[in-house]
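Chapter summary example.
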Amino acid sequence: MSVEKVKTKSEEEIETAMDDEGDEIQENQFLTFGIEKETYAIDLLNVMEIIRLIQITPIPETFDFIKGIINLRGKIIPVMDIRMRFSLEEKPYEDRTCIIVVSIKGMEMGLIVDHVSEVLEIPESQTDAMPSVSKTASQRFVRGIGKTDGGVKIILDLDKLLFDEEMEALLKTKF
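The structure predicted for these 175 residues follows.
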């Protein structure tokens, strides 16, 4: 099965976010994506690529939010459903559902999201800490809140998407 890259405005913006030499992404650049009606942002420096949803092979006896693994051009990558990681209701995947391949603590991981939105620059002066409105586990995944002309974006801390014991278990798994 071949992997088809998603051709979206976001992919063009990722390429545009590269500097003049084409080898380094500018600071304070974030890829935004949607889950339900909420918009999240992740540091563009962690994004490796965006692909269409492809066949995912389930892994027995793993965490519920790990949907399985994909074969991306010969490399086996575990895939996490962000919706399930945030304890949201599972729903069928749609045409805009895609996988964002990121680097989390040096490990490549696919993140299933409802849709990719755009690349935004959010200067540090426009970010705040997450208000202490709840003590849910999902709040631990949040690095801060980015204020933009289009509202606020929840900036995720990718390194905290996996608890230490979850990361250790995945690293021990032979893919």
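To summarize the output: The chain has one domain: 9-172.
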